[in-house]
Batch of 2 targets.
Target 1
Amino acid sequence: GALAVSLAAESPKMPALGLIAPYLEMPPKIARAAEVSWLWGWLAPVVGSTEGRSILNPKEAQQNLAYGIFTVGALRALHTVAHRASAALPRVVAPTLIVQSRTDNRIDPSVTERAFARLAATDKRLEWITGAARHHRRLRL
């Protein structure tokens, strides 16, 4: 989602933009951890999430063994990409549809509402769904 937003901001003639649970803002604690990861990254070069999984299909979850585990470099890159995409929202003019679950364990509804409000598109729609990503997970540092 963040990459699509960045591309749409650079391509004003894009005919439409569809976003499903776009990751456009890190939780403050995780963002701070990413920003200062140069201090602690050498101690914990790999970080993981805790408290449940968002892949609800048991067969699919079994096949994704590394899901929720990433390097400190990947954490920093995600922070950069999300930050740039968030800053690009006011330049997105393409008709936009955002689909988001109110129970998403990574994207708080308020983040989606802020992002939606910042879109420059005059033709935009936010669709809320339920029953997705019921488990909560926090980053373990």
Target 2
Amino acid sequence: RRTPPETFLPTRLEPQPAGGRLVGPRLFTVDASAADRWQFFSFEHGTVVQNPGPRGWDLAFRRFRVIANGGVGFAGDGGVAELRTASLDSVTVAPGSDYVVNTARTDTTNAALEEWYDYSYISHLLSPRPTVYAVRTAEGRYALLQFVGYYCPGAVPGCVTFRYMYQGGGGVSMAERAEGSGKR
């Protein structure tokens, strides 16, 4: 008998501006269930942004695909670095270099995020890997991110859920925890 996956409701799209300070850890769920439409997330605004400008978003989600706002054809300075740790809370400094930018093939991808999940051919379920990612935002600020889920209620795929910290004040330090345990 198959165990149903943990599910998450999409987070309400209400801006929670960082205001030049360290934010997080926060839990956020992007409704990326539409296979034909990207959802754009901004760390500065703390939410999905509708119709963002060229530099008005940091990560984009479409089903299980995740890209950053950086690379050829993108206006932002964004990129992603996979860190060799399984605990968001254990990272106190985001790396200053070695961020992977997007590449455009038949579909835009970011090599650092192509395998953020494991897929079971037995259960046909996707589960996030216990990995932390550092994100350089479109504006060159830094965030940490860890995926925690992929399913909406009813085991519908596409509710990409992650915990994050964002250094809105600039710099790479993630040492001071600004908020509680990541509750919505």
